[in-house]
Every structure is written in C-alpha cells, then in structure tokens.
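Risk register update: the risk of archive-format incompatibility is retired. Evidence:
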Amino acid sequence: MTTAQEILNQPDVFLAIQQKRTEKQAEIEQMQKSMAEAFNNAFAPLPRATNRVEYAMQLARNAFNIWQGISIGLKIVRGFRKAFSKQ
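Archived output:
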C-alpha cells in the first residue's frame, strides 16, 4: 500500500497528512544535521602536532595542498585564456 493510499484510508485525512509532514520534516532535519556534521568534520582544522614527526607531516601536507591549489588555478587560467583568446 502506498503512502497516499494509507493517508486516504485514515478516518481523519488532514491529521494523517499533518503527521506525515511532521515525520518528513524530522527526517529532513536529521539529514541536515548529519550533512552539517560531515561538512564540519571534513573541513575542520587538524589538531596541533604533538611531536616533530607530526609537525613535519603537517608541513608536508600543507605544502602539497598549496601546490595543488596553485596548479589547479593555473590550469583554470590557461583554460580561460585558451577559450577566450583572439584567434
């Protein structure tokens, strides 16, 4: 039985619609919370290094991320120049 059929079989259709809406709203809020938590965990800063090895690893990771960002930016600029250059 589909949701629409379940709602139509209820004695008070408007109450059934309101209950389904409340359930869906609770599901949406739960999904929003989980998405926000996942986003925050993905972009949260790394904890402070406690020893030299961790510090070196963080420096290497930061340097690699900076290099990746610059190379992607250069590729985008080259692409725009190529696409919009006068020929």
